[in-house]
Amino acid sequence: MNLKIRLILMNFLQFAVWGAYLTCMGTYLHTHGLGAKIGLFYSIQGIVSIFMPAIIGIIADRWIQAQKMLGISHLISGIAMISAGIYGLQSGDTVHFAPLFTLYTIGVAFYMPTLALSNSVAYFALETAELDRVKHFPPIRVFGTIGFIIAMWCVDLLGYQQSAAQFVTSGGIGLLLGLYSFTLPACNSNNDKKTTSVADMFGLKAFALFKDSRMAIFFIFSMLLGVSLQITNGFANPFLHSFGRIPEYAGTFGVEHANMLISISQISETLCILLIPFFLKKFGIKKVMLIAMFAWVLRFGFFGLGNPGNGVWLFILSCIVYGVAFDFFNISGSLFVDQQTDTSIRASAQGLFMLMTNGIGATLGTFGAQIVLNKLVFSMPKNTDPQLIMNGWVNAWYIFAGYALLVAIVFIFAFKESKKKTIEA
């Protein structure tokens, strides 16, 4: 099979696993009495990303080939997610937090490292085939977003947005990808017989990237921008469903099919990925990241301004700019890290990038968003006027937009570009 097709299938399944539950899990938890725990479920993705991608990346760099580590991780994750789904389905409305959260945590603990691992597998395969990664990877990565969208639509149309069946769907796709990963092109590990230091043995060399001031600033702002990553994933769907309590908006498409409306974000992401090679070569990493930061401002601001009725076009605009906000940061950042690091630490460096963004950044962001929403929305009594609840949501979105704007302004003065390439640790 053609190499690009093989990598396309890998990316398609990789993100279909995530798309099956990521944007609608909050609604499932809310309708089953766990609304106050939404932040914990989304935060655990960030918490495990603080250490799991780095650990798994280290193993892939040193001992187990990346494509095999990718397969092992997906098999473990898939089994855990299916178990969480079966438990949820059997428990019905009496689902308890502890068992569901435990199984879900195991699933995401082994899924989150695969985001970096799949990039490493693709980059190594393209490099071995003597193909330009900046040119050829984005079109391949597009199919990951397509997989995410198709999974979202299937869960929506099958009526799984408020059902634990979304976890079973995710786990099933994960098992399929786990088996397929063992057929992918072999990646070299650096398991040689030379005497190495403790840092070499445990793959800690990637953390030495912080010695380079420019890379240190890059990773710090990756963390600060990562704060925004999971906010809409966790709370956009419950936000849209909240409009259903207002007669004017009850029954609208945005309320009944929130997942499909939100999927416009991923459709935009698919198109924006194709722009990355041009923007990176034309403007450089600093301007591309700035574009992403200002896009996050618009993402949150449009959510605050819109409604599912005559203001639905603002939600659509928010979804459109999401493609720029996500891709111009995540994909470009990953390519930047790959270009700036030596081959011996690339998997670890990708793990470090994931740690700063989906780890520390996303964890702080989700906890912070939960605090804001608890204060402005979730603390209100159930018999509160629905319009007052929506006002709380609106104010929360404006606070998130203000944060993104502040980060962008500071970044303008803090980060300096350089032509220096291939940093060794």
The CATH class is identified as Mainly Alpha
Assembly state: single chain
Low-confidence stretches: 192-196
Radius of gyration: 21 Å
CATH superfamily: MFS general substrate transporter like domains
| Total domain count | 1
Sheet with the most strands, sense and barrel status: none
E-strand count: 0
CATH architecture: Up-down Bundle
Instruction: Tell me the series of helices and strands, N- to C-terminal.
Output: HHHHHHHHHHHHHHHH
Helix % is over 70%
Helix-strand makeup class: mainly alpha
Describe, in plain words, how this protein is organized in 3D.
This protein is mainly alpha-helical and 425 residues long. The chain has one domain: Growth Hormone, Chain: A. The protein has 16 helices and no strands. The chain has helices spanning 3-19, 25-31, 38-62, 66-91, 97-128, 133-157, 165-181, 198-201, 213-226, 231-242, 253-256, 258-273, 276-305, 312-340, 346-378, 386-414. Helix 14 packs antiparallel against helix 15. It starts with a helix and ends in an 11-residue tail after the last helix. Mean pLDDT is 87; it is low at 192-196.
Short characterization:
With 425 residues, the chain is mainly α.
List the helices and strands and how they pair.
Blueprint: H1 3-19, H2 25-31, H3 38-62, H4 66-91, H5 97-128, H6 133-157, H7 165-181, H8 198-201, H9 213-226, H10 231-242, H11 253-256, H12 258-273, H13 276-305, H14 312-340, H15 346-378, H16 386-414
Helix pairs in contact: 1-5, 1-6, 1-7, 2-10, 3-4, 3-5, 3-15, 4-5, 4-7, 5-15, 6-12, 9-15, 9-16, 12-14, 13-14, 13-16, 14-15, 15-16
Structural features:
single chain; 425 residues; mainly alpha; Growth Hormone, Chain: A; 75% helix; 0% strand
